């Protein structure tokens, strides 16, 4: 098909191989002699819907994966927005969601502004935004000089916890835990206090405090045991109700009856 026609050396990516059988990222740049002038066509290949949704048994379906890996190795800043633009379309693609953070980490901190904008855009669905946040985590882990900026972006988004989906808040907190972002603890605590966090993702506020090194597991166990004991005691205590008073009480009725005699 014409849409799948690429000049050498990119034509080799159409039949390069099944990524499930390729353990590590090959060095596409060195092996195929890729250069900056190949970036536009690599972007076209990475975002081609016909390739991304080709027959699952074909080799062509893997061409976009090889293409976005190549773009990462070329540090292709021009690929940042085009790759984000297909995040919704590829929402169910584990390959895209797992590898886009790796690709953006290879491209570097230049990917932060567009990724920040994507994460902040509530018109995008949950998991593409989660992938965007994961990109920031990977950039921070790969480029230490960008760590504070990435933490700030994730924390700023978490600070919108009232508007955010509680699941998104949970994933953002998990990302901050991965980055050991102790400086974000006040924002995290506010999100939990507002009951706007899905607890199945990063746990509760006590779990997070352990992850950030703010409390030890022993301290948290003691807190949980104390809270549980107080809860059980409150359930067990049932005060004896005072006798009913007022016009509806049986005592008043008996008084009225005695007066009639």
Tell me about this structure.
The protein has a domain of 74 residues. The chain has 261 residues and is mainly alpha-helical. The C terminus is likely disordered. Helix 7 runs antiparallel to helix 8. Helix content is 57%, strand content 0%. The protein is elongated.
Characteristics:
261 residues, mainly alpha, 57% helix, elongated
Q: Low-confidence spans: pLDDT under 50, at least 5 residues?
A: 246-261
Class based on secondary structure composition and strand pairing: mainly alpha
Describe the sheet with the most strands: none
Tell me, rounded to a whole number, the average pLDDT.
90
Distance separating the two termini:
107 Å
Total number of strands: 0
- SS strand fraction: under 5%
**Element pattern in H and E:** HHHHHHHHHHHHHHH
Principal-axes shape call: elongated
Helix content: 55-70%
Contiguous helical run count:
15
Write a brief caption for the model:
The chain is mainly α.
Q: Topology of this protein?
A:
Blueprint: H1 28-32, H2 39-46, H3 49-52, H4 63-73, H5 80-85, H6 94-107, H7 112-120, H8 126-142, H9 147-158, H10 166-178, H11 185-193, H12 199-202, H13 205-211, H14 217-236, H15 250-260
Helix pairs in contact: 2-4, 4-6, 6-8, 7-8, 7-9, 8-9, 8-10, 9-10
